[in-house]
Specification:
Keywords: Oxidoreductase
Family: Belongs to the short-chain dehydrogenases/reductases (SDR) family.
CATH topology: Rossmann fold
Number of helices: 4
CATH class: Alpha Beta
Oligomer: single chain
InterPro entries: NAD(P)-bd_dom_sf, SDR_fam
Largest sheet: 4 strands, parallel
Shape: globular
Helix content: 40-55%
CATH architecture: 3-Layer(aba) Sandwich
GO molecular function: oxidoreductase activity
Length: 123
């Protein structure tokens, strides 16, 4: 895929795979990358003022934040829905079934709801 001059939005961009997506897009010629993440401090620490990166505070499970991000990022031509959730212990280590169910819902919500909520404004 030719990414030259692409304007992309990467959700979950503050760390791990998301940060690598941002770096890869820029290496391949993207003109600009909106780096979405839930915490402004984590975003600022991840990208050190690179002018081709536009940090966006964005919780993909919050339709109001997604709408605000879509209003800012009107020039996006590529969306990478990478947002996810992690917990130190999570559903596998849960002491009882109700806690495991709650953790599982929290784990899956960014992937299931986030992809749908983020796709709507970009369509």
């Amino acid at each position: 895929m030719n990414l030259k001059n692409t304007v992309a939005l990467v959700t979950g961009a503050a760390g791990g795979i998301g940060r690598e997506f941002v770096a890869h897009l820029l290496e391949r010629g993207a003109a600009k990358v909106y780096a979405g993440g839930r915490h402004a401090a984590a975003l600022a620490g991840s990208f050190n003022g690179d002018l081709c990166i536009a940090p966006l505070v964005l919780d993909v499970t919050d339709p109001a934040q997604v709408a605000a991000a879509a209003a800012v990022a009107t020039d996006v031509s590529l969306v990478i829905n990478n947002a996810g959730y992690s917990a130190e212990q999570g559903a596998v280590a849960a002491a009882d079934l109700s806690e495991a169910r709650r953790d599982r819902r929290q784990l899956l919500r960014p992937a299931a709801d986030g992809a749908r909520v983020c796709a709507d404004p970009c369509a």
